[in-house]
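Weekly modeling sync, notes
Attendees: S.R. (lead), two postdocs, one rotation student

Agenda item 3: backlog of single-chain predictions. S.R. asked that every request posted to the team notebook include the full sequence so nobody has to chase files. The rotation student volunteered to paste the first one in as an example of the format we agreed on. Action items at the bottom.

Example entry:
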Amino acid sequence: MDSFLKQYCSPEWQAFVDFHKETREFKANEIILNEGDPVNGFLIINKGKAKVYSTNSEGKEMIIRLAADGYIIGHRGFGGDWTYPVSAKAYEKTIVTYIPLTIFNQVARANVEFTYQLMMFFAEELRQSEEKNNLIPVKNRVAKAILANYAVFGSDPKDSLKISYTISRKDFASKANTTYETVIRVLAELNKENIIQLQAKSIRILDLQRLKEISELA
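Predicted structure, as returned to the notebook:
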C-alpha cells in the first residue's frame, strides 16, 4: 500500500493519508482482525509478520496467505456485507498502519492510477485463491508453502539460505491443505533429497531452483 501511494498518488494525497492514518501495535499471537467483524478501515503491515486465514465449517484453519512489511490485509472484506471473511494473527510483534475507510475511499476516487494498480493486486490475489489446490500433488503443495514462506519473510540476514521466520509445521499443513503428519513426511523427504535442510524448527533452502520445479504442476 505504501509503495502504491508513493508511485501512484500525488505528494498531496500521500500527506492527506499520513495525517489521517493511525498506528496500531499487536503482540505475538494477537488477533489483528477477526472473521465476521465489520470493515471500517484499510490495514497495512508496517513492520512484522502475520498470517491471513479462514475457518471452514468443521473449524479447520486454512491459511490463505502470509503477510510481512508493506502487505495489505483486510481488503477481502470490501463490498458485499462489508464484513471480514478472514482473520489475521501476528506471528511476532507487528505494527500496523490503519487507514479509515472514508479516507481510503477519497484517495481511491481521486487517484485513478492508484485504483487501477490496486485492482490488479486484487485480481491476482483472487486468481491465486481460485487455484484448485486440492488437485495438486501434496509434495508440490508443501513445496509451494515453503516458497511462500520464503518469498514473504525472506532470508535470515546472517544466513542467506535460512528462512528468516519459518512458520510452524501446523501452519504449513494449513497452507498446503494437508495434514500435520504429511507435512512432516514431505519435509523429511525434501531434507533427504538435499533440497532443504531442517534445523530444529527452521528451514534452510539448499536448492531453490529444484524447490521451484517441484512446486510447479507437471
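Discussion: group reviewed the output briefly. The mean pLDDT is 89.
Action items: rotation student to repeat for the remaining queue; S.R. to check formatting next week.
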